[in-house]
């Protein structure tokens, strides 16, 4: 199981939890997790690209499989891989350190209208970039982006004042919320979280910023798999959500279960790709 981001972030947590659940769902199967970070996910996806036709490799996928190709950063596309399963959705929270003057996401936008606001994000072309781009388009502001390789690097960056605001998944910052070292400003989901620790956080839409976007978590296989291999992994993935390991990951990291398999997952990726293209594609 290739994880295309560094250890400690949301993608790493997802990959390791999915691997453990896959082992439980398929007795006798051994899944080894390998972090191949770099290039905002490009290094990991390229590693899987090189395993074409090999059914022994999987990748813990998220929205970078779409945003990297659209942004012109890589030569591959989603069609070079085998969609296995979408398993969950992972929302985003704009966070600041405890002594920040920002109390809401509206405060951040207003500050950016008259000055410089630095925002930290995991990867230069992933889901965080999409959300900040959407906010910029809706409000007319421009942020100073500072990319990091994972949420594991981004948390200490916002704590240390390297960036004023960061966009992180709940599971990456819940410990800092509990300790009081970080504060949430708003969530980028359609509706508020029902988890008690996050229920008080308003959505961006509630604060007058008409933006909603979440990150999916799932599995890709290498490209060029035969129908037997594809069917094996799709069937194996269907057992993941029934495991205690998977349900614990959802609960501990504040995700929402959301399942699509095989061709249905492929259709979802195509729809999302079409929606993102005009947003991210660089002018020729």
UniProtKB/TrEMBL annotation:
Belongs to the UPF0065 (bug) family. This is Tripartite tricarboxylate transporter substrate binding protein. SUPFAM superfamilies: Periplasmic binding protein-like II. Pfam families: TctC. InterPro entries: BUG, Bug_dom1. Signal peptide: none annotated. It comes from the Bacteria.
